[in-house]
Amino acid sequence: MGIFGLGGGVMVLASLIFASQTFILPQTASQLAELPIRCRSWRRNNVRCRAAFALRSYLPKSPVLRPLMLNPPEGDEREDIEYREAMADFSHLVAGAAPRPRI
Prior knowledge:
Elements lengths: L1 H18 L9 H30 L17 H12 L16
């Protein structure tokens, strides 16, 4: 698994970098200069995504930003919402379905 896993990981990274370019292999000096820029850009975006996922788990627990988070309804309000959703008729949204008569 180690050889194939590492090889697959390297190929995925290479494909992400190559997908952001207009050439396959650098053949001119400007293309060769563009390759490290694309690598740094990909690395920077990777770090940003990891930071966003880390903040996503931290922010609901922070005392400053906790009041800004939307909490799900509880108790009677939740039961009322579940009842209204169960009673809703969405058959008109399905293509080709005949509408059910309303009672």
